[in-house]
Design brief:
single chain, alpha/beta, Rossmann fold, Glutamyl-tRNA Synthetase, domain 2, Ribosomal Protein L25, Chain P, 3 domains, seven-stranded mixed beta sheet, 13 helices, 27 strands, about 25% strand, elongated, binds adenosine-5'-triphosphate, binds magnesium ion
Length: about 575
């Protein structure tokens, strides 16, 4: 696992310009940002964007970033997520050092501030039901109506709020609301709920509390407690900012955070919403939060996407103010680019067909020298054993090849990469008439894959010695959804791609790949990028296909540049 701190400074953007000006003009002495996940699921690639911005901005200006769990909803939050989120941020390459915080650490302070608002006549206990509150709130075109409980005395409010805390009332019986403006054009300012009654066990505070602050009441004040200077978040919180500012202005908070919003990341063929991802897991559509098809960081890690590729992708997407959707092809292009440079080359045969080299000695095994990465001369080479019986890819042979099929066929010569030229001299078939084995001859003068007489076969195939190859299960992955805009017709789950996973049993891999650590991605030549899955065990190897080699995005881009 990579935990190096990324140091490449990002291009400047509107947030970095604001921060630079705040420092230059002395409004801020030292930059403090935070990443504030709610521990109600695992992080996804959208969160990676926020993490890269939060940690990246602080790093670029010599500041620091807090990791704060906004754990205000005990019914949905779990310790498993608290741990998973920390692991994922470290994997992505960022570290909060000593600055790990929880909104639940501030419950007592937040309660005191709620009492402060009551005393100032700016909060009241409301007995309306949730449905009534919704009905009284009005709509975007109609103002709301005041609750009949809005004019309660301070003394009565203090008494009721204290009894809410003491556990006297059942869930949903009462709420504490801010007393702002039921006619505000911003719905968030129509007397928002600050506290609700929830007799629920909290992962950190246990049963100490039976009233919990709403996210909106906790978030800005938590920033203020921590001295956060620049509170960066995605665009959907823009409409909440006036409310956060109202709290900050009406409470004796120790500092004044400022919030700036950037565009949410959306990617085609997937969904970035913890709520939806949780359903995919719970309803068994995937193997878990870390399924290689999931857009979660845990899933991308299991799939073999390197963290530097994810950071590179986020940097290329940039920090904009307007929401947009990024092509999955662009994400994959960036990942391929990173893998092409660093992934070691290995041989594997996914759907094997036996080849017998009739003029090759029975007991001979030759060690062929194959480059580890032709893109990187420093990567050296490895030895791959060659013998009389080999595996090649079934689709690399056709008994009756059509005009444009240049690979192996009866009577035809091809190159086996880094080994010899071989010519197909015959086929063996089973009772059903299927080809089960090829008979070939090899030319000893072509050792290493070159002919002294300048012969150049039209095809170069990968291969494995049947003696030395190791069996493996290989899982091929495709998009989780079969359309770029899943759910656009209303039913998201109907758009799941039924062919998003194909499991191949009976594949073979080069023996050296058995040593690869889980998640270390290699290129199986001509096939794509693959990495060992956590399910892999000695004697029962399992590989995931990270990506195919085909890069249609690069072609689209090249075409765009020409035209
Ligand atoms: P989801 O909608 O998937 O449940 P969320 O916004 O509820 O995500 P939080 O845990 O509240 O998840 O998010 C933590 C931070 O990550 C927030 O500051 C939010 O702005 C940011 N974030 C979440 N999703 C995205 C996204 N798709 N693109 C950019 N930032 C995001
Ligand atoms: Mg949220």
């Amino acid at each position: 696992m990579s935990t190096e701190t990324p140091t490449t400074p990002e291009r400047s953007d509107f947030i970095r310009e604001i921060v630079a000006a705040d420092l230059r003009e002395g409004r801020v002495q030292s930059v403090v940002t935070r990443f504030p996940p709610e521990p109600n699921g695992y992080l996804h690639i959208g969160h990676a964007k926020a993490i890269c911005i939060d940690f990246g901005v602080a790093r670029d200006f010599g500041g620091r970033t807090n990791l704060r769990f906004d754990d205000t909803n005990p019914t949905k939050e779990e310790q498993e997520y608290i741990e998973g989120i920390q692991e994922d941020i470290h994997w992505l390459g960022f570290d909060w050092g000593e600055h790990l915080y929880f909104a639940s650490d501030y419950y007592e302070q937040l309660y005191e501030w709620a009492v402060y608002l009551i005393n100032a006549g700016k909060a009241y206990v409301d007995d309306l039901s949730a449905d009534e509150i919704r009905e009284y709130r009005g709509t975007l075109t109609e103002p709301g109506r005041n609750s009949p409980w809005r004019e309660r005395s301070v003394a009565e409010n203090l008494d009721l709020f204290e009894r809410m805390r003491a556990g006297e009332f059942p869930d949903g019986a009462r709420v504490l609301r801010a007393r702002i403006d039921m006619a505000s054009p911003n719905m968030n300012l129509r007397d928002p709920v600050l506290y609700r009654i929830l007799h629920a066990e909290h992962p950190r505070t246990g049963d100490t509390w039976c009233i919990y602050p709403m996210y909106d009441f906790a978030h800005g004040q938590s920033d203020a407690i921590e001295g956060v200077t620049h509170s960066l978040c995605s665009l959907e919180f823009e409409i909440h900012r006036p409310l956060y500012d109202w709290f900050i202005e009406n409470l004796p908070v120790p500092s004044r955070p400022h919030q700036y919003e950037f565009a949410r990341l959306n990617i085609t063929y997937t969904v970035l919403s913890k709520r939806v991802l949780l359903r995919l897991v719970n309803e068994g559509h995937v193997r878990g939060w870390d399924d290689p098809r999931m857009p979660t960081l845990a899933g991308l890690r299991r799939r073999g996407f390197p963290p530097e590729g994810i950071r590179q992708f986020v940097a290329e997407v940039g920090v904009a103010k307007a929401d947009s959707t990024v092509e999955m092809g662009m994400f994959e292009h960036v990942i391929r680019d990173v893998l092409n440079r660093k992934a070691l080359r290995r041989f594997a045969v996914l759907r094997p067909l036996k080849v017998v080299i009739e003029n090759y000695p029975e007991d001979l095994v030759e060690e062929m020298e194959a480059p580890n990465n032709p893109e990187d001369p420093g990567a050296g080479s490895r030895r791959v054993p060659f013998s009389r019986e080999l595996w090649i890819e079934r689709e690399d042979f056709m008994e009756e090849p059509p005009a444009k099929f240049f690979r192996l066929a009866p009577g035809r010569e091809v190159r086996l990469r880094s080994a010899y030229f071989v010519t197909c001299t015959g086929v063996v078939k089973n009772e059903a008439g299927e080809v089960t084995e090829l008979r070939c001859t090899y030319d000893p003068a072509t050792r290493g894959g070159d002919s002294p007489d300048g012969r150049r076969p039209k095809a170069t195939l990968h291969w494995l010695s049947a003696r030395a190859a190791v069996p493996a299960e290989v899982r091929l992955y495709d998009y989780l959804f079969s359309r770029p805009d899943p759910g656009a017709d209303g039913d998201l789950f109907a758009d799941l791609n039924p062919a998003s996973e194909e499991v191949l049993r009976g594949a073979f891999v080069e023996a050296s790949t058995a040593e690869l650590p889980v998640g270390e991605t290699v290129q199986f030549e001509r096939l794509g990028y693959f990495c060992p899955d956590p399910d892999s065990a000695p004697g029962a190897l399992v590989f995931n296909r990270t990506l195919t080699l085909k890069d249609t995005w690069a072609k689209v881009q090249a075409a765009g540049k020409q035209g």
